[in-house]
UniProtKB/TrEMBL annotation:
This is Glutamate [NMDA] receptor subunit 1. PANTHER family: IONOTROPIC GLUTAMATE RECEPTOR (PTHR18966). NMDA receptor subtype of glutamate-gated ion channels with high calcium permeability and voltage-dependent sensitivity to magnesium. Mediated by glycine. This protein plays a key role in synaptic plasticity, synaptogenesis, excitotoxicity, memory acquisition and learning. It mediates neuronal functions in glutamate neurotransmission. Is involved in the cell surface targeting of NMDA receptors. Plays a role in associative learning and in long-term memory consolidation. The record marks L677 as: Crucial to convey clamshell closure to channel opening. It is found in: Cell membrane; Postsynaptic cell membrane; Postsynaptic density. GO terms for biological process: ionotropic glutamate receptor signaling pathway. The chain crosses the membrane at residues 574-592, 644-670, 829-853. The lineage of its organism: Eukaryota, Metazoa, Ecdysozoa, Arthropoda, Hexapoda. Its main location: membrane. Residues 1-24 form the signal peptide.
């Protein structure tokens, strides 16, 4: 709270006349002290007098000093000798039990405030600095209890960033001395830039850092190096003497003229030769020691008041000789002091964790002609938003070269180093042969420098991106040198520890194309470079020149043509039902024809040529013949009922055959193999137990995509071990069947699928993104490249590149191939041929069985005939014996009772009529010998001719038949 009330002079005198005996009072019990001695180490009499006056006024301000509490001042004069200052602090301040010390800055020395801080800090007595701005006092390991109402010099980096953001400068060169404050300015600038400026498009980046030793003699060598950089915005931290040398040499090299911007700190602004157009800072109330004294005392009173409410304050140390005493209340009091946030004489007073002043207000100063300093803006505290705010009047600024036009802040080079990488069809690279002098007309020289062995080889490049590069160079007017990626990688990062003055930090280190661009060894990347968040954090991207995503490449599955492919139109159940139906219908036809009165018997008027009734074999033949449409010539049903069933069966067969024919065409002719995978969500990809190998390229944008996606973490861990170094190797393994699924950018995979119709992309695109031209952070070419690419999209140039390089017209060929029917081959119809072969083999097998069976049957018949012949022969022998016996009897009668010849003849005739010789019985056709047919025919003829059968045998009479008698 700003103090505006002044006490009467009598009250002031009363406070000064308080008996010294009160100084010896000590608090009793556990209560906080009723009085507080405040020490002051000041630079002059005026400050000492003001210090006492402020404390006297403080005792009557009930807002800060409760009733019963009194503050007393104890001051000493600061000495330029730090040892004397430390001794005086012990002798005149600590010995009198001071609860805090306010220290000023000796005009000719820098070490006296440090001596006060060391001495008081040893006992944890808080020290409030009112003029010390060096960065060393921010180190709480050394100055453990020091805080200040003035900001350190390096806090001006915060104002620099606001000024750069206001003017839109994103690339700067920082020039600083190599002392503690100079390095602190650089560290503050970089830390605040990355912490407070989330928008990478407006974040200021440091292109170059120029560090010099203090007390310069010449700065020309540094300026020559700065001329080669793109940035023309210089942030300078230097002392007044060093700034003089820098401005002098910069003017000699024309680096203070139009196009160059200098933003400097307070010390450099005070140089005698500051050029026109420089912008500097000036701290408000920087030299107003009295206002800072008042703010320091009121801040201290506010902290003590709050502390007495919350806890008890013990007595302050009283003797420097007792080295073992550490004042714990002083340590806690320092914590209360850091939490103060009040409105004082010097503005809003607050402190950070280091005890440094926050919300310090600055004036923005612009140097005009004749070395006149003009305030063109301010950096002040906005009480409504409770933060600092920069306000600059642009129209009142005079820029270097004594002009009112704001410079661009960057020098745009017209000759760029462009990097690319071999990735078909975007970039084709071929090695230049020994007998070739130059590349072809449609190619560009693109040497490859191998960082592994340091060799450089000449290559020639052409393709989608090369044509795009030529068009960009012609459209936005620049020349270029093209080269291939040194390590053959697009670029991925590794986390590495970096040790700085603050501590160890983890940073991303990039390789490949991205690493070259981040290290500023290249200006442009024209390649199929995927835009993703990790890369965009370190480099600039143009608008996409081609939109794409991620997809999966696999080889088309071969047609599953088995030996029974011709059975595919019907399911197994249907085939079984058809087989059963054939035989059931045949059986019913046989039964109907058998039991029908018109099927079993012939009509009386027939001529004897009508076919017999349908038997079971003929019925089965008829059913199969109708089903297979073979045409039946015989064995058809005779009855009306059976023929009605036959017509129904013919209709059934027609429907079955037509359905089979239609489905056969669909299965064997128009069928196209589908992809094995349905996309990234396919369970076989997500399930690590499946034997399905998938991979991508190590360190690529696709690899980064899988790292980011938590739901794909299991899949990524599985495929990480299979990842390839290049896309070429992976695609070749897919063709060879070694890799089942390759996950990569859709543009490349669509190109491969259009070139080889055996490859196919599976599923829909995921992880959609685009290819962009890569540029350095803050590159002046970013907007020009983006506008040119947008114009190329509108004019159809990018579409023409797609047709020329990516599709090559092969997509239409593959689509036409997909739509045309397949030509059936042996693979498809092998089962039918095997079926015919099986029928032939079966027929041959059956005929062999029939022949073997017939031979066996003939052998059996021969044995039966032999046995029958033997039986007939035996029967004939028996008959002969009987005949012989009869003949012998007759001979005996003849010899004995022969009376006459006539009687003998009659007897003989009687014998013939009694025992006629009959022919053998005819054999049935089944039992006849092959030669018996002629005999049977002759027998019939004889029988029909004579009217009676021939004699069975003609007896032969021999004179001597004794040898026939058994």
């Amino acid at each position: 709270m700003k103090l505006t009330r002044m006490l009467p002079a009598s009250c002031m005198l009363l406070s000064l006349m308080i008996p010294q005996a009160l100084l010896a009072q000590k608090p009793t019990g556990s209560e906080s002290p009723s009085y507080y001695n405040i020490g002051g180490v000041l630079s002059n009499n005026e400050s000492e007098s003001h210090f006492a006056t402020v404390i006297a006024h403080l005792n009557f301000d009930q807002q800060y000093v409760p009733r019963g509490t009194t503050y007393y001042d104890k001051t000493i004069r600061i000495d330029k000798n730090p040892i004397k200052t430390a001794l005086n602090v012990c002798k005149h301040l600590i010995s009198r039990r001071v609860y805090a010390v306010v220290v000023s800055h000796e005009p000719t020395g820098d070490l006296s405030p440090a001596a006060v801080s060391y001495t008081s800090g040893f006992y944890q007595i808080p020290v409030i600095g009112i003029s010390s701005r060096e960065a060393a006092f921010s180190d709480k390991n050394i100055h453990v209890s020091f805080l200040r109402t003035v900001p350190p010099y390096y806090h001006q980096a915060d104002v620099w960033l606001e000024i750069l953001s206001h003017f839109g400068y994103t690339k700067v060169i920082i020039i600083h001395s190599s002392d503690t404050d100079g390095r602190a300015v650089l560290g503050r600038f970089q830390t605040t830039s990355q912490t407070n400026y989330d928008d990478i498009d407006v974040r200021a980046t440091v292109e170059s850092i120029v560090e010099f030793e203090p007390k310069l003699d010449s700065f020309s060598s540094y300026l020559m190096d700065m001329k080669t950089a793109q940035s023309r915005v210089y942030l300078l931290y230097a002392s007044q003497e060093d700034a003089y040398v820098i401005f002098r040499d910069a003017a000699i090299h024309n680096m203070t003229e139009y196009g160059h911007i200098w933003i400097v700190t307070e010390q450099a602004l005070s140089a005698n030769n500051t050029p026109t157009g420089i912008i500097g800072l000036k701290l408000n109330n920087a030299e107003n020691e009295t206002d800072h004294i008042k703010d320091a005392i009121y801040i201290l009173a506010s902290a003590i008041k709050e502390m007495t409410v919350n806890e008890t304050i013990t007595e302050a140390p009283k003797d420097c000789d007792d080295s073992g005493v550490i004042w714990e209340s002083g340590k806690r009091l320092f914590g209360y002091l850091k939490t103060r946030n009040i409105r004082g004489e010097t503005g809003q007073v607050a402190f950070d964790d280091n005890g440094d002043r926050m919300y310090a207000e600055y004036d923005v100063i612009n140097v005009h002609e004749n070395h006149s300093f003009v305030k063109v803006g301010s950096f002040h505290y906005d009480s409504e938003k409770r933060k600092m705010r920069l306000k600059i009047n642009d129209s009142s600024i005079t820029w270097p070269g004594n002009t009112g036009k704001k410079p661009e802040g960057i020098m745009i080079p017209t000759h760029l180093k462009v990097l690319t990488i071999e990735e078909k069809p975007f970039v084709y690279a071929r090695k230049l042969l020994d007998d070739e002098i130059d590349c072809a007309d449609d190619e560009v020289v693109c040497p490859h420098f191998n960082i592994t062995n340091g060799n450089e080889q000449e290559y020639c490049c052409k393709g989608y991106c090369i044509d795009l590069l030529k068009a960009l160079a012609q459209r936005i007017n620049f020349t270029y040198d093209l080269a291939l990626s040194p390590d053959g990688q697009f670029g991925h990062y590794q986390l590495k520890n970096h040790t700085t003055g603050i501590g160890t930090t983890v940073k991303k280190e990039w390789n490949g194309l991205i690493g070259e661009l981040v290290a500023e060894r290249a200006d442009l990347i024209v390649a199929p470079l995927t835009i993703n968040p990790e890369r965009a954090e370190f480099i600039e991207f143009s608008k996409p020149f081609k939109y794409q995503g991620i997809t999966i490449l696999e080889k088309k599955p071969s047609r599953s043509s088995t030996l029974v492919s011709f059975l595919q139109p019907f399911s197994n159940t249907l085939w079984i039902l058809v087989m059963v139906s054939v035989h059931v219908v045949a059986l019913v036809l046989y039964l109907l024809d058998r039991f029908s009165p018109f099927g079993r018997f012939k009509l009386s008027t027939t001529d004897g040529t009508e076919e017999d009734a349908l038997n079971l074999s003929s019925a089965i033949w008829f059913a199969w013949g109708v089903l297979l449409n073979s045409g039946i010539g015989e064995g058809t049903p005779r009855s009306f009922s059976a023929r009605v069933l036959g017509m129904v069966w013919a209709g059934f067969a027609m429907i079955i055959v037509a359905s089979y024919t239609a489905n056969l065409a669909a299965f064997l002719v128009l069928e196209r193999p589908k992809t094995k995978l349905t996309g990234i969500n396919d369970a076989r990809l997500r399930n690590t137990m499946e034997n399905l190998t998938c991979a991508t390229v190590k360190g690529s944008s696709v690899d980064m995509y899988f790292r980011r996606q938590v739901e794909l973490s299991n899949m990524y861990r599985t495929m990480e071990a299979n990842n390839y170094d290049t896309a070429e190797q992976a695609i070749q393994d897919v063709k060879d069947g070694k890799l089942m699924a390759f996950i990569w950018d859709s543009s490349r995979l669509e190109y491969e699928a259009s070139k080889d119709c055996e490859l196919v992309t599976a599923g829909e695109l995921f992880g959609r993104s685009g290819y962009g031209v890569g540029l350095q952070k803050g590159s002046p070419w970013t907007d020009a490249v983006t506008l040119a690419i947008l114009d190329f999209h509108e004019s159809g140039f990018m579409e023409s590149l797609d047709k020329e390089w990516i599709f090559h017209g092969n997509v239409q060929q593959c689509e036409q191939f997909e739509k045309t029917p397949n030509t059936l081959g042996l693979k498809n119809m092998a089962g039918v041929f095997i079926l015919v072969g099986a029928g032939i083999v079966g027929g041959i097998g059956l005929i062999i069985i029939e022949v073997v069976y017939k031979k066996h049957q003939i052998k059996k018949q021969k044995k039966m005939e032999i046995a029958r012949h033997a039986a007939d022969k035996w029967r004939g022998t028996i008959e002969k014996r009987k005949t012989l016996r009869a003949s012998l009897a007759m001979q005996r009668q003849y010899n004995v009772g022969l009376n006459s010849v006539s009687k003998s003849v009659q007897s003989q005739n009687a014998e013939k009529s009694r025992y006629p010789i009959l022919p053998p019985l005819p054999r049935t056709p089944e039992r006849a010998w092959p030669k018996d047919k002629e005999y049977i025919v002759n027998r019939k003829n004889n029988s029909s001719g004579a009217g009676k059968p021939p004699p069975r045998y003609m007896p032969t009479y021999a004179t001597d038949v004794s040898h026939l008698i058994v």
